[in-house]
Amino acid sequence: MEVLVTGGAGYIGSHVVRELMKTPYDIVVIDNLQKGHREAVLAGEFYRCDLADRQKLDEIFSDHDIGAVIHLAADSLVGESMENPQKYYQNNLTAGLNLLEIMLEHNVMKMVFSSTAAVYGSPDNIPIEESDTAKPASPYGRSKLFYEEILADFDNAYGLGFVSLRYFNACGADYEAGIGEDHDPETHLIPLVLKTALRQRDKLKIFGTDYKTRDGTCIRDYIHVSDLARAHILALEKLEEEGESSIYNLGSGDGFSVKEVIEAAREVTGREIEAEPAERRPGDPPVLIASSEKIRKELGWEREYKDLKNIIETAWRWHSSNPEGYGESKTGKEI
Ligand code: UDP
Predict the structure, then answer these.
(1) pTM (2 decimals)?
(2) How many structural domains are present in the chain?
(3) Is residue 14, in this structure, part of any structural domain at all?
């Protein structure tokens, strides 16, 4: 069976492709390379294609015998979505709907969808369970929740099977395979901490030190990107067995504060990492920790990386051996 990965040149997508290489599935990747890197795609047939391009999508679906889609292509920054919601609704919803339409036309009825902890907003219960109310606090979170609801409607009406995976904080790298995190601009905590350790940045800003948490800084649930990626394979297998559509959290069940992450990175790198208190970042909830019991019980998902320092170590190996990320050729070529 051919599996189409949208957004397969991105950070998480490239790790999903890497995990798919360990399975018998054939891989087709599309990415518009706005954020993604061609070099990050280690296998499969690659198309530079935007989901807004219905004609090209249609051609790709005609040329391949696609059995399922893993849909990751999206914009994914909370802050940017507050300033430019139009972009988020356009790319995540309108373009995402094109994909669904083409899937229906070609009778491709299985999707694994990349969702987010941002659908929960500031949750009432910690750890968060899938049955807890989703009250997204940003256009980004809303775009993902709306898409999940669209999937549920398509399931009811057309029998489209889906598994939605709500990611918590993806981090780390499959550095042995030569892939890792390279965003421009980088906004995520762990890569920024490591870039500070590498002296590519002066100081890390700690966004808020007066939260009601154990040390005043925000607590997040950090999960290794390869563990996250493996969950997509389990989700595909579930869909192949004609299992029911479902939504799963993907996190570790553990939370670490910003200060704890910085301290762990100091230990891993053996370097000084200067950090200073700064204003809170709008839209940041104080604590986000997932219960991932549901996916453990139902799909047998287990984490391989259980120790934060271990996870940071994998990211450190990637960043220290690729200080410029994927480098100059990151925009890639039309293929
Ligand atoms: N953070 C920070 N300084 C930075 C970047 C992030 O203090 O330069 C904090 C951020 O406020 C949040 C946590 O680190 O509490 C994780 O942020 P990230 O952007 O990595 O992921 P998010 O939780 O927003 O998806």
Answers:
(1) 0.96
(2) 1
(3) yes
Q: Which CATH number covers residue 160?
A: 3.40.50.720
Expressed as residue numbers, the domain containing 72 is 2-168+224-251
The three-state secondary structure class of 36 is coil
Give exposure, 223-238, as e/b (b: 16+ Cβ within 10 Å): bbbbbbbbbbbbbbeb
Hey, which of 192, 250, 281, 311 would you mutate to test ligand 1's pocket, going by the most ligand atoms within 8 Å of its Cβ?
281
- Answer yes or no: is 161 within a domain: yes
Averaged confidence pLDDT in the chain: 96
Among 140, 222, 305, 326, the one annotated catalytic: 140
- The pLDDT assigned to 248 comes to 98
* Confidence at residue 243, expressed as pLDDT on a 0 to 100 scale: 82
Q: Count of residues for the chain?
A: 335
Determine the distance separating the centroid of ligand 1 and the alpha carbon of 169, expressed in angstroms: 9
Would you give the DSSP letter of residue 301?
-
Q: What is the pLDDT of residues 291-322, one digit of tens each?
A: 999 999 999 999 999 999 999 999 999 999 99
